[in-house]
Amino acid sequence: MVRNLLAAGYTVCGFDLDVDRLAACVEAGMRPKHDVAAVVAQSDIVLTSLPSSQTFLTVAEHEILPNTHAGQIVIDLGTTAVHKFRALAEEFARRDVDLLDAPVSGGPGGVERRQLYIFLGGPDETVQRCMPIFIAIGGGDERITYCGPVGSGQIVKGVNQLMMGLGNAAYLEALAFGVNAGVDAAVIRQALGNTGRWRVDFHATAGQVVEGHGDKVGVKFRELPYFIEAAKAAGFPLPLTELLYHFCDVGERVVIDDHRPAPSFWRELSKRV
User: Fold this and answer.
1) Which parts of the chain are beta strand (E)?
2) pTM of the model
3) Domains (ranges, CATH) in the chain?
4) Which end of the chain is less congested by CB atoms within 10 angstroms, N or C?
5) Which segments in the chain show pLDDT lower than 50?
6) Residue 260: its pLDDT value, please?
């Protein structure tokens, strides 16, 4: 993202706890700062891309907010629990600072190719002022959507993540039914084919299992609590999401999901009662 902003002509200063990532950004042309406070003090627009909701909330509350000045814009590019994000946005607003949510989807490859989906939430006028930044990061505006008031981008990112997580979980559980009942995964994959709607996605998921990588098919385990909490705060149910999370949560942390240890849904399904 830093390289994309630099290529678009922006002056970028930044900080990262990971010295290797910081060095790579400096080599690309970024001006390094010694901490978050220094970045905030010298920037009109502050962008964050952090590994978890709680990490962002902690950094924003304790390191960004106290160092802001009136008229600044702070943009969160990560996935953050929406009800907590909105509460934090109110704190920023008291300092005359706009907090925008702009979670991205597309992974490292999407960043490199500038082909990211970006879901935007916040005051419309502020979002439009920042649109050139979003285009610089993610590419053409056909994938960049203004979703509504602050927090709306996080809601739409939740739809995105649940679609992927629940979809993968459904394919894995369907495959597990066949495998646990005695039919080889490769046979099931061949029998169901690879044409038309869900069959293409199922074929890909089954292929991961056939190749011995079923543990690596993620169900967004680490982010599910964000959406469960948001649903409870708003007063509506997420029954499948809750069941998926609690089923996985008892499992041993054997894979890495979003840079953190997590259970494998496939491994849990493969256990015999």
Assistant:
1) 13-14, 31-32, 45-48, 73-76, 98-101, 104-105, 117-121, 144-148, 255-257, 260-262
2) 0.94
3) 2-149 (3.40.50.720), 157-270 (1.10.1040.10)
4) C
5) none
6) 83
